[in-house]
Design brief:
With 414 residues, the protein is of the alpha/beta class. The chain is built from 15 helices and 14 strands. Helix 4 crosses helix 7 and helix 8 crosses helix 15.
Length: 414
């Protein structure tokens, strides 16, 4: 039995996504099946084979940070600040000299500041090395999102960025949970951010055969578990959560949104891009074991569900391996069908979706599901949200090089 210092609760959430620039807007988008994939506007695609992506719309970094500070940050760090600010505000956690050393910042990003890197490299080639901006290096660093949060919020506890590809944000949240449980800190801002929508990053993903080939049909391009799926659609965004020990949250009278009870992390030690069924399954098993739950206790799975042929079939096999007969009963959905694949940020946004499912009793759909696949034969909540009580939800995140992370949240009970 865990004591109040070992029980970890969520007291705040923040999101910036292709379907909404707050948790409330994003959740409304998920429930209604709003599509975040469209033709790219962040750069001229005339010379790019990739024409579509899931962009964050209407985001004004200057209004949040001030124009001068915003220019010092890559877009992925700007998005991180927006989401973390919302999560901190909802939690009501005040950071001052009394507690600053007992709060951590754990972020996740798989690609970091690739837009800043490629832009400044272009400047060097065209205008010479002396014209490279003085903030080019900090802008491109993968830990710059972590750094800006510590600076902006005055947090002096442990901080780190986890780069575990598409499992990065889930890893950051899981490690924050473990850090609080170990007593090293009382609370943490944890999540992830990504903004890879630039010519270089999309060309790299496209040339390895990872991206969707449906460039002429953006609204239908991300189609997880559908037999006609052809690859993922790159997306951008950020998600952050405020995590605290239950004792800390109670001491300050915080409102608890949910309890995070399970975290499992594994490595496939196999192929760079092809997920291993056993590695993914073991991450789920470890999360269930830590939570003290049986597979049949889980009411909803937010799947990794990238819309790539092998990932979706292998994730289905992994769920069947872990859940047995319960696999056919549990609702499973991929919100990537609406947001595209936010790479290192995806685990945070999808865990937020799990918390909202618990809170509202609504399970978001997998949109664009039209053609069943014999290898993907579970209940993917096709095309429309369903109303169903959710007390326990699981979120899967599997990344390149076989990084796997699984998180479990449950309804908070005193």
């Amino acid at each position: 039995m865990l004591n109040e210092n070992q029980r970890i609760v969520i007291t705040g959430m923040g999101a910036v996504s292709p379907v909404g620039n707050s948790v409330a807007e994003m959740w409304e988008g998920f429930v209604t099946g709003r599509q975040g994939v469209d033709f790219i506007t962040l750069f001229d695609t005339a010379e790019s084979e990739v024409k579509i992506a899931a962009e964050v719309k209407g985001f004004d970094a200057g209004a949040l940070l001030g124009a001068k500070e915003a220019r010092k940050l890559d877009r992925f760090a700007q998005l991180a600040y927006a989401a973390a600010k919302e999560a901190l505000a909802q939690s009501g956690l005040t950071i001052d000299a009394r507690n600053t050393h007992r709060i951590g910042v754990l972020t996740g990003s798989g690609t970091g500041g690739t837009t800043a890197l490629t832009n400044e490299h272009k400047v060097m080639l065209q205008r010479g090395a002396r014209r490279v901006g003085p903030f080019a290096m900090p802008m491109m660093l993968i830990d710059s999102s972590c750094g800006v949060l510590t600076i902006q919020f005055g947090i002096r506890g442990p901080s780190a960025n986890y780069a575990t590809a598409c499992a990065s944000a889930a890893t950051a949240i899981g490690e924050a949970m473990e850090m609080i449980r170990a007593g090293r800190i009382d609370a943490a801002l944890a999540g992830g951010s990504e903004s890879p929508i630039n010519p270089f990053a999309l060309a790299a993903f496209n040339n390895m055969g990872a991206l969707s080939t449906f460039n002429d049909d953006p609204q239908r391009a991300s189609r997880p578990f559908d037999a006609t799926r052809s690859g993922f659609v790159a997306g951008e965004g950020a998600g952050f959560l405020t995590l605290e020990s239950l004792a800390h949250a109670r001491a300050r009278g915080a409102n608890v949104l949910a309890e995070i009870v399970g975290y499992g992390a594994t490595s496939d030690a196999g192929h760079i891009t092809t997920p291993d069924v056993n590695g993914a399954a073991r991450s789920m098993q470890l999360a269930l074991q830590q939570a003290g739950l049986a597979p049949e206790d889980v009411d909803y799975i937010n799947a990794h569900g990238t819309s790539t042929p092998i990932n979706d079939s292998n994730e289905t096999k992994a769920i069947k391996l872990v859940f047995g007969e319960a696999a056919a009963r549990v609702p499973i959905s991929s919100t990537k069908s609406m947001t595209g694949h936010l790479l290192g940020a995806t685990g945070a946004l999808e865990l937020i979706a799990c918390v909202k499912a618990i809170e509202t009793g609504v399970i978001p759909p997998t949109v664009n599901y039209r053609t069943p696949d014999a290898e993907c034969d579970l209940n993917y909540v096709p095309n429309g949200a369903i109303s169903e009580e959710v007390n326990i939800a699981m979120s899967n995140a599997f990344g390149f090089f076989g990084h796997n992370a699984c998180l479990i949240v449950k309804r908070f009970v005193e």
